[in-house]
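thoughts on both lines:
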Amino acid sequence: MNYVGAARHECERLSVITYDRMTVAQSDPNVESVDQAVIGARVRALREASALSLRELSGRSGVSAPMLSQVERGETSPTLSVAARIAAGLDLRLSQLLRLDEDGAVTVVRASERQRGGAPRRGHRFEVLTSSQPGQRAELSRHTLAPGGATGAADDPPMHEPGSREIALVQSGAVVLVCDGARHELGEGDCVTFDADLPHHFENRGEEPAVFLAVVSAGLRRS
């Protein structure tokens, strides 16, 4: 075989290999295997969890707001390309949006990686123990109140998004929950559940520090 023929043969062989690889890569995330109503509910939940309007997600993804609205209502199933753009607008991989890689998935937040905050001058410190990734259904946080301390300062907002529910468990000490004007005294081991979209805050009227855990879940307010 001459050099020209050999080169041509090699190019043909390489083009076949490249084509095969492209075919496999494109057929991996199968948007058609996921029910369009499920996709729509997933997109809406992730968008709302990220505090994005349809117009804002449209700007981030390049998908029109009317198309996004149709997808969220389950009226249409997005193509692979559109779904990938929506995922990018939500800072997710396509497989994360479609939940194709959730089986056996585990998210670990190390102690050193926790988000921390609070209002030290009011004696309140907290750390979020769960992941801050979009789409989380609940948030777990640990709060420490110094004697005389309280949550709810101007830079330590006590309210959550509409429909939120909160569960708090007192680990040590004693606190008072003031929710919608009513006071509820809680001691070590006591647990309280309330509508977190109502005005509320916690107080420590004791002489020892108090520690409590709080779980906030979105969209679960009682009707």
